[in-house]
């Protein structure tokens, strides 16, 4: 018959004495020597040890993150860790000349940079769209100079039915498109654009980049000409693409999703497509 009784708590001093007796009895037992030999530590030492382990573990995680992941060979040796490639996409600046002409990227063989056409201020037919501006109209120039250039070229100012909103001036072009001059201050041009969607009428423009992209070019033509394009946020009905010359200047292309054609191009120091011009 087995009796049941509760065991009183063991006095720590008696526990140490019993442990000492057991260690002496097992001193000659080789297998017993593999049993842990660490005596009970005080709580202060245990906490300090735990904190040290945490610090070392954190340092090890940080080292692994910066140095890569170690691997083992069949013999159990640790191989030299290799750095892990970054998953963040990088933007490769496209070659450009002093006129802001961006070369297409990604071609099997280099595409010759076209000879720049002189931008005659009074002749819109000679103007080109580059990362430097649209013809003689450039970001950063005084608004008064831009207006004077437009008037000298025979362009008229229009409010497109909604007034000059969001600090913009509009210059009508003979082909039915408009040049839009956005302001970074009341007297300074922030961006220059050509817009094909004028008064809800889509037009095909004659102003083009040195490589022939103009209002009405297809999305396929744009992407095959400039493979260094990056995405730009715009409206859900449109897709935006940005192209940098690597010197802080951008051409941003706005593509209409329904027709898959370029409907606006913006030149500025930002990879940005502004909202509607007219309300």
Query: How much beta, percentage-wise?
Result: 15-25%
Number of strands: 11
Q: Compute the separation of the termini in Å.
A: 98 Å
What's the total helix number? 4
Query: Strand order within the widest sheet?
Result: 3-4-5-11-10-9-8
Which H/E pattern describes the elements? HHEEHEEEEEHEEEE
* Mean pLDDT, all residues: 70
The helicity comes to 10-25%
Number of individual domains: 2
Structural class of the helix and strand makeup?
alpha+beta
Please mark out the parts with pLDDT under 50 across 5 or more consecutive residues, or reply none. 28-72, 76-93, 104-112, 161-165
Biased composition (Low complexity): 104-125
Region (Disordered): 68-125
Keywords: Membrane, Transmembrane, Transmembrane helix
Biased composition (Polar residues): 80-99
List keywords for this structure.
single chain, 279 residues, alpha+beta, 2 domains, seven-stranded antiparallel sheet, 4 helices, elongated, transmembrane helix, membrane
